[in-house]
Specification:
59% helix, mainly alpha, 0% strand
Amino acid sequence: MLPVTMHRFHPIHMGTTAQTILKAILSIPIAFGLAYPLIYPSEGGGVLGEMAALGTIGSIVVIAVFLALVYAYASDLRTTLKSVSRGSRVAEPNSVWLMFLLPYNFIEDFFIISNVAKSLEAESRINPALSGLRSFGRISGIGWCLAHVLSLIPNAMGSIAGGVAVFLWVWHWVFVRRTNKMLPGSQVSVTTLPGRTGS
């Protein structure tokens, strides 16, 4: 009888290049959703389709205000990633600027929010100031990302999803700003944790 050889299967981790390619592929239907109101203007186009009613000047003003808000929000996310310890950080702070890369950002936003949540979760293990956090912003963060994608649907559902996206975005932003106030000056040295002694 031949001996039975046991093999251990290790989890498969997607490389950075493969992950980027996957995000780019998923961005293709997003690009179509963004272009849909222009291709089929008579059918309406969710939130983006409604912007046509504002006219050229109105649309430019709305877009400018929106981009300014996104910049402020991304800056706060960057502050979060910069404020956690390097050992807790799972993404570089400047990665948040990918939020401006259309249409790729619709997919990348999920990863940015997830990375911020993972970083805060890791930081909470060594920083008592964050011990009260539970979901680390995942619910509102992933929620607004999903609603953001659904807002591209060319009907009333898209418009409703757009409103939900704004509500959850503001909710997550409030969470981020509140959390950032907990981080500066509240870092705890590992040597001061219970059971640790200085060398």
